Amino acid sequence: MAVCARLCGVGQSRRCRRRQRHNQQDQGSDSDMDEEEGERIVGETQSVTGGAENSAAARPSVAHEAAADSASTGPPNPQSLLDLPPELLVEVFSSLPGTELPNLALVCKKIRQILNTETIWRRRCTEVLHPYRHILGLWQPDIGPYGGLLNVVVDGLFIIGWMYLPPHDPRVEDPMRRRPLFRIHMWESNKVAVECMYGHKGPHKGDIQTGKKDEFSTKCNQTDHHRMPGGRQEEFRTWLEEEWGRTLEDIFHEHMQELILMKFIYTSQYDNCLTYRRIYLPPRMPSDLLQPGLFKGTYGSHGLEIIMLSFHGPCARATKLTGDPNVPAGQLTLDVDLNRPVCLPDLEHQRSMEELSRLVLGVHEEAQREVQNPDVAPQGAASEGAVAGGAGGAGAAVLESAMEAQSESPQPASSSSSSAPSEAQPFVLPLGVMTRNEVYPRTCKICFYGTGLIAGHGFTSPERTPGLFVLFDEDHFGFIWLELKSFSLYSRLTDRLAHAYAPDMERFEAMLRNMQSWTS
Predict the structure, then answer these.
(1) Alpha helix (H) ranges present in 183-281?
(2) Which UniProt keywords apply (predicted)?
(3) Paired residues of 446 in beta bridges
(4) Which of 115, 139, 165, 352 has the lowest tally of Cβ within 10 angstroms?
C-alpha cells in the first residue's frame, strides 16, 4: 500500500524518488532494461492481464494473484516501484488516469518500457474512448469517384485517422504518404475531445457521429481554419504541390491539367465533412497465387491509384479503393482468369504488339465462345496449359505450379507445369505500348488472360476489354491494356495495417458487393 501511495502522489513520494536515484547510483545500470528484457515483460503482462481486459472487476483478483506468485521470487519488502514484478506494475498503472501516464514515463527507462505494454493502452481506450473504439481499422471515404483509404489507429493518448495517399506519379515504388484528418484526445478521465486536423493552422474543433454500423461521419466546426490568406489560388497551389509534387506549369498535357483542376474543386468542397464506410483486407487462402492485399498502380493521366487484389477460386480481382471520373472507386478494375495462362514468345516476338494481340485475343475469343456455349469444351491456348472449370481441374494445377515458382520448398510437379515455368522468364513490353514507368521488371513468373474496365467520363459506357496480367514477383504485377496500348505497373503497400482483415471470406465478398453499389 505504501508503494501504491507513493505512485499516486501521496505519502513519501519525494523520499521514494530519492531512494530510486540512490539505488541507481549503487547498482549502476541495473535498473535499466535492455530490449530483450522489455520484450519478455510485454509477453508476460499480456498473458497475465488478458482476462483483465474483459472485466474491470477482475483486476483486484489478478493483481492479488500476481503479488502472491511473485512473493517467492521478488524481495519480501519492496523498497521502490522497481522492486515490484512487472505484471503487478501493469495492473497498478492501468488504474491511473490516462493523462498521468506520460509524466510517469519520465521516471526511468524500466517504467517507460512497461508503459509501452499494449494491454495498458487497450484498456484505456476501452474505458475512456468507449464510444469510438469501433472506428479502429480501415475505411473508405465517400468522396464521389475519388474514394480514398483511411486508417484509424491508437497512438499514445490519441485515436488518429490517417488518410493514406499514393506516392507522387509515377514513382510507384515510393512509400505511401500519410495525412492526419482527425484525432480524438483523452483530456482527462472519462472525457474526450474530437479535433479536426485538416488545413494548415493546427488542430481545431471537430465532431464524429457513429450512428450506423460500419459507418461514421466527421464534421469540422471551424472550417475557417482550412482557408489560406491567398484565397483559392494559394490553396490550389499548395494542394497541387502536396498531391502531385509539382506546379501547374510543370504539367504540359492539357487534358491532365483539366483532370487535376476538377479533382481539386470536387474534393475541397467537403471541408473534411465526410462519411466513411468500413472496408476489410482479404484473408489469405491456401490456393492464392500470391499474398492478397493493397497495391499502388499507374493509371495514365489520372496518376497513381490504390487497388485491392483478392482471389476468388479460379479468378484474381483488383478493386479500386481510389478512383477517377472515368472508373470510380469501388469498381472492379481488373478481372484475371487463372485458368487461362498465356505462354509468352521469345523476346523478339514479345516486342511485336501484333503478336501479343494475336495471343491474347485468341484466348479472349475462346472465353467469349464458352460464355455463349458453356457446354463446349475449351480449345486452343487454354487447352494447352489449363482447362476452364473448377478448382479441382487442370486450372488448379496451373495455379499450384505458379505458386511453386515462389516457394523455397517445391511441391510435387503437376502435369501442366510446362505452362507455368518454375524459373523467371524474360519479359519486355511491345513497341508502341505507353508506360508511366520506363524502369519495370524484365523477368516475370507467369502471365494470364484477363480483362480491364474502361469507361467514358462520368463512368459512361463501361466495358471490359482484354489484356495480359503479368506476375513479376510477390510484390509486383502489371497489366497490358490492349485497346489502350498502355501498361499499368502495380507495387505492394508495405504499411502494417492493424484491425484490417476480414473475419472470413463471406464477409469480405459482401463488402466488395457493397463497394460496387456505392458508385454504380
Answers:
(1) 231-244, 254-268
(2) Ubl conjugation pathway
(3) 471
(4) 352
Closest CA to 316 of 282, 345, 342: 282
Q: What does each C-alpha distance from 122 to 69, 170, 376, 446, 495 come to in angstroms?
A: 25, 39, 58, 44, 21
Query: Are 271 and 226 contacting, i.e. CB atoms less than 8 angstroms apart?
Result: yes
**How do the domains of the chain map onto residue ranges?**
83-130, 132-275, 282-368+424-518
In CATH, what number does 282-368+424-518 get?
2.40.128
pLDDT in tens, 450-509: 999 999 999 999 999 999 999 999 999 999 999 999 999 999 999 988 789 999 999 999
CA distance 517 to 109: 52
Alpha carbon 212 to its chain's center: 23
Contacts 24+ apart (CB under 8 A), 314-319: 314/338, 314/339, 314/388, 314/389, 314/390, 314/391, 314/395, 314/396, 314/399, 316/289, 316/448, 316/450, 316/469, 317/512, 318/490, 319/512, 319/515, 319/516
C-alpha cell recorded at residue 126: 476501452
Q: In the chain, what is the straight-line distance between the N-terminal and C-terminal CA atoms, in Å?
A: 64
Examine residue 170 and say whether the peptide bond preceding it is cis (omega within 30 degrees of 0): yes
**Pairwise CA distance, residues 93 & 107, whole Å:** 13
Q: Note the pLDDT tens digit of each residue in 22-35.
A: 444 444 444 443 44
Is residue 146 within 8 Å of 329, Cβ to Cβ?
yes
- Grid cell, residue 361, equals 485475343
Beta carbons of 101 and 463 less than 8 angstroms apart? no
Note whether 83-130 and 282-368+424-518 share their fold: no
